[in-house]
Design brief:
Pfam families: Occludin_ELL. By secondary structure, the chain is mainly alpha-helical. It is built from five helices and two strands. A two-stranded antiparallel ribbon has the order 1-2. The protein is elongated, with a radius of gyration of 24 Å.
Length: 164
Amino acid sequence: TSDFVHKLENSSKGMITGTFFRASSSVKGKSSVSPNRATVSNHTPKVHVIADYIIKYPEIRSEEEREKYKAVFNDQYLEYKDLHRNIITTLNKFRELDTMVNQLPRKGKSWERIQNILKIYQDKKNDPAFLEKKERCDYLKAKLRHIKNKILDYDQETADNHWT
């Protein structure tokens, strides 16, 4: 497997794209934002990136909310499945091409032609449309995991309350 395919597969682990909110911590109750430059301290606040769905989909408090979350999950799961299938197919093609390229002779008349083909191949690997689909897929995966966990938490809490 080429370094690119490996990096591409691992690049978005732990990274979520989409709409984010920044939340910064402050020191000893002081605001980390100061309109007056003279009062700015040397402290650099830590920036915590919070995905939009964390805020939009908090703990479920009612059966109605649960049904709304489930509807969002089902709707976006279809998009995720389609994107995931497309990305897996493309990554498998990249792996197959990587294997073929690694088996090609590195010398001789045909090397210049092979170099031209490799350039086209590298361009396809770095295609912004593909990379955008990959980011969207990773975002949806994380969002769907979050929503599913909120539904499971609600179901567990409801079951626990039912038996007590």
